[in-house]
């Protein structure tokens, strides 16, 4: 039975393939590369949901990496249940059509409670004493201890934050080999996030990116060799390209100056009260969902956004998604798209002295928006390693402590993504050794993978 592995190399585009990616370049030159219009917004959760369902954003409902839950009156970011993604998934379709089909889904998002046969996803434990214990979640559950026994603990600090680096992608790659050796899935979906870190931190074209490109090229090249030696068809895929940015845009601060934001003071810090605010934005890279609890302000808010420096476009949420301009209930009433060189922060405070405590921490679930500044250590801290060491010692001794090492300087970020109107060099790519039908958009990834698996399985090639 011919089988397929999809290597989702985040941030991989035509513009970064070259001198520092010789093994990826050799794979591309031996086959066919198709670039295609990214999902909207061009972010991980939305793109992957389009890939695994073949639906537009209006169909699968994943309108960003996070959004405002109007019923709970809470912003929810980076949730993990696969039930969030609406529509039938690629492994369900192929399993129905091809008896004996199996699928491994490794670190692709929305991976908990998936109907895929084998899954691994990052999932810390949060004991009642306030600790955060790094771990993974697997299906079947017993696989969790087996894979950790063989590969060691997943290097969670390198998956996100100031220490984000190649070890997490190396571990994910080894887990893909581990699952392949034990189970031989028909389809393996493998997520390799490494390029995303450097491209956001340093920006595309920065000299620091040379080493980052070489690192992911080594990991990808090794996986290509491994799977092809086992007669598994390799697909290289990406989700978006990164644009160089130099202009953070603080929409919530603009709304606060208008008197539309409600702030709740907590222990000397300011907390955004979404449910009580008339207008607020949930920022996600270069796209921001703007929610209105007071619909009478719609035209005024729309006009303010259109006049704001750094905003290129404002779409009605009811018409923002899908080929036919459909909407989804999770979307904002308005959806702002930034200029190519700009991106949106979640910042709502006007004085850093009263910023919430989580603002200076790596805290992806508590922040009401995505925060790429979490990739940096605060340059104002004289001895960051000493501060981190002190924090770890306090935690080990059982004391409460705050790892507040993240700066509040959005100008540090040099790369971002999310726009769907980008040059071909910054579009996501789909690469196979064999020729394939070109893709028009993110939804087409689903049909291309299905066609490849079915043709291989049915002996049509």
Could you say how many structural domains there are in total? 2
N- to C-terminal distance: 12 Å
Structural class: alpha/beta
Query: Unreliable runs, pLDDT <50, ≥5 residues?
Result: 456-461
The appropriate CATH architecture of the largest domain is 3-Layer(aba) Sandwich
Mean pLDDT: 94
Arrangement of strands in the largest sheet: 2-20-9-1-8-5-6-7
Question: Into which percentage range does the β-strand content fall?
Answer: 15-25%
Can you identify the CATH class of the largest domain?
Alpha Beta
**CATH homologous superfamily name of the largest domain?**
Alkaline Phosphatase, subunit A
Over all CA atoms, what is the radius of gyration?
22 Å
Pfam family, one: Phosphodiest
InterPro entries: Alkaline_phosphatase_core_sf (IPR017850), Phosphodiest/P_Trfase (IPR002591), Phosphonoacetate_hydro_insert (IPR023116)
Protein name: Alkaline phosphatase family protein
Organism: Rubritalea tangerina
Structure description:
- The protein starts with a strand and ends with a helix.
- The protein is built from twelve helices and 20 strands.
- It has helices at residues 22-29, 44-53, 57-60, 90-97, 143-151, 166-183, 194-201, 209-229, 251-257, 298-307, 384-396, 444-457; strands at 3-9, 32-35, 66-69, 74-77, 103-106, 118-122, 136-139, 187-192, 232-237, 243-244, 247-249, 263-266, 269-272, 279-284, 287-292, 311-316, 334-338, 342-344, 415-416, 429-432.
- Mean pLDDT is 94; it is low at 456-461.
- It is globular.
- The protein folds into two domains: 3-243 and 419-457, Alkaline Phosphatase, subunit A; 247-413, 2-Layer Sandwich (Gyrase A, domain 2), CATH 3.30.1360.110.
- Helix 6 (166-183) packs parallel to helix 8 and helix 7 runs antiparallel to helix 8 (209-229).
- Strands 2-20-9-1-8-5-6-7 form an eight-stranded mixed beta sheet, with helices on both faces. Strands 14-15-17-16 form a four-stranded antiparallel beta sheet, with helices on one face.
- It has 461 residues and is of the alpha/beta class.
- It is 28% helix and 19% strand.
């Amino acid at each position: 039975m011919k089988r397929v592995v999809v290597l989702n190399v985040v941030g991989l585009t035509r513009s970064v393939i070259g001198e520092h990616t010789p093994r990826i370049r050799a794979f591309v030159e031996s086959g066919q590369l198709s670039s295609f219009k990214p999902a909207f917004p061009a972010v991980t959760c939305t793109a992957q949901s389009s890939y695994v369902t073949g639906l537009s954003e209006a169909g699968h409902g994943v309108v960003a990496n996070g959004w405002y839950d109007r019923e709970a009156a809470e912003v929810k970011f980076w949730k993990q249940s696969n039930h969030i993604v609406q529509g039938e998934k690629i492994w369900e379709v192929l399993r129905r059509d091809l008896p004996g089909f199996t699928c491994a889904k490794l670190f692709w998002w929305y991976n908990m409670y998936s109907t895929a046969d084998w899954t691994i996803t990052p999932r810390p434990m949060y004991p009642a004493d306030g600790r955060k214990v790094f771990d993974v979640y697997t299906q079947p559950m017993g696989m969790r201890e087996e894979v950790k026994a063989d590969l060691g603990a997943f290097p969670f600090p390198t998956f996100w934050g100031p220490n984000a680096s190649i070890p997490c992608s190396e571990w994910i790659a080894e887990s893909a080999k581990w699952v392949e050796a034990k189970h031989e899935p028909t389809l393996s979906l493998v997520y390799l996030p490494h390029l995303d870190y450097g491209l956001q931190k340093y920006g595309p074209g920065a000299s620091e990116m040379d080493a980052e490109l070489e690192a992911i090229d080594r990991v990808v090249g090794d996986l290509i060799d491994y799977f092809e030696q086992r007669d598994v068809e390799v697909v290289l895929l990406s989700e978006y390209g990164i644009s160089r940015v130099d202009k953070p845009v603080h929409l919530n601060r603009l709304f606060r100056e208008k008197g539309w934001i409600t702030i709740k003071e907590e222990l000397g810090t300011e907390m955004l009260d979404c449910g009580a605010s008339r207008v607020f934005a949930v920022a996600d890279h270069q796209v921001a969902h703007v929610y209105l609890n007071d619909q009478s302000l719609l035209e005024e808010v729309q006009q303010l956004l259109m006049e704001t420096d750094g905003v290129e476009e404002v779409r009605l949420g009811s018409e923002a998604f899908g080929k036919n301009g459909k909407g989804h209930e999770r979307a904002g009433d308005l959806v702002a798209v930034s200029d190519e060189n700009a991106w949106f922060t979640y910042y709502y405070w006007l004085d850093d002295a009263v910023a919430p405590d989580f603002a200076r921490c790596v805290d992806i679930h508590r922040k009401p928006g995505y925060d790429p500044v979490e990739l940096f250590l605060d340059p104002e801290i004289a001895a960051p390693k000493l501060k981190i060491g002190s924090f770890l010692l306090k935690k080990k001794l059982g004391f409460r402590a705050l790892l507040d090492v993240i700066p509040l300087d959005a100008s540090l970020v040099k790369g971002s993504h999310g726009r769907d109107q980008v040059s071909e060099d910054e579009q996501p790519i789909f690469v196979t050794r064999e020729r394939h039908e070109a893709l028009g958009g993110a939804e087409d990834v689903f049909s291309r993978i299905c066609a490849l698996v079915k043709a291989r399985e049915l002996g049509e090639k």
